[in-house]
């Protein structure tokens, strides 16, 4: 049996893919090593003699199982993947590892790649490249938001030895690059078309955010470098890509009516989001170290009305953008804020010191009054 790909017979006399020998033959052609700048005359992919000498001297495969817990303790994200036809390193064991070290916020995941053996990049090259690019770019955040709604800042931060960066400092670093990107793309000016509206509103949105960080929000927590960089990168890249796409849309695709509704949603969302941030500030100016359930405005009906109005702003931007790419880029905040509101409600019910506050939190909706 070919343990590296059960669909195939053993090729070339051992368990390696036949393509390995093609690569080996090519690299050993006269002149190839010199062009590559390699400091050797011969390339061998599978060298049994060398492997035997390594084993004899104690230099063999090591188990990294014990490092998984350490990586998770350091707040790292882990992705384990394998082809479904790989026997020697199989997806069943990977899935068991995923379940064994499963965390509440889904920082370890196993991926099952169909129609692939040991060399997934060879058997499913396009899918593997797409997976790798998404993992590196962080676009899988839209999916991970469902499993990790409690990004460690605000009340979810302050973990000893992990969260060491003051939240105010982190938030300024998170929002400033997005604002700079907006000014680098174009000079803002008022014109009722898709790009200029989204461009101007995005600038207003991030200026408002920076002002709130500096003068409105009262922070009592810390976060960590990984969280700060991940959120900053997500905001910056999505803002940049969104504006870049809209800038190149043909003018005839623009609906004035839809954009007008979107503009209204955006303005209402920003104003009401700011108002509820002000209510949170008033709550935190009370001389007490204990968390209290917010009151006033729509806080009397839902746990996180400021999230709802932020989503309304993003909905307005989508109505003005009027393209599928913008929709996909804005999916992350919609998903993330929805589930974070739910997680915030659970946190209030579990951690508020006042019994009446805990009961009131239980009776409130998470995000939308009387609905969710």
UniProtKB/TrEMBL annotation:
Transmembrane segments: 170-190, 197-219, 225-245, 314-339
Topology in membrane: Multi-pass membrane protein
UniProt key word Membrane: yes
Keywords for the protein's UniProt record, in alphabetical order: Carboxypeptidase, Glycoprotein, Hydrolase, Membrane, Protease, Transmembrane, Transmembrane helix
Stored InterPro entries: 3-oxo-5_a-steroid_4-DH_C, AB_hydrolase_fold, Peptidase_S10, SRD5A/TECR
Domain 3-oxo-5-alpha-steroid 4-dehydrogenase C-terminal, first and last residues per copy: 249-372
Regions annotated as coiled coil: none
Listed GO MF terms: oxidoreductase activity, acting on the CH-CH group of donors; serine-type carboxypeptidase activity
Single GO BP term: lipid metabolic process
Signal sequence, renumbered to the chain: none
Domain of life, source organism: Eukaryota
GO CC terms, sorted: membrane
Subcellular location: Membrane
SUPFAM superfamilies recorded: alpha/beta-Hydrolases
Record family assignment: Belongs to the peptidase S10 family. Belongs to the steroid 5-alpha reductase family.
Record-linked PANTHER family: 3-OXO-5-ALPHA-STEROID 4-DEHYDROGENASE, 3-OXO-5-ALPHA-STEROID 4-DEHYDROGENASE FAMILY PROTEIN
Protein name per Swiss-Prot or TrEMBL: 3-oxo-5-alpha-steroid 4-dehydrogenase C-terminal domain-containing protein
Organism: Rhizopus delemar
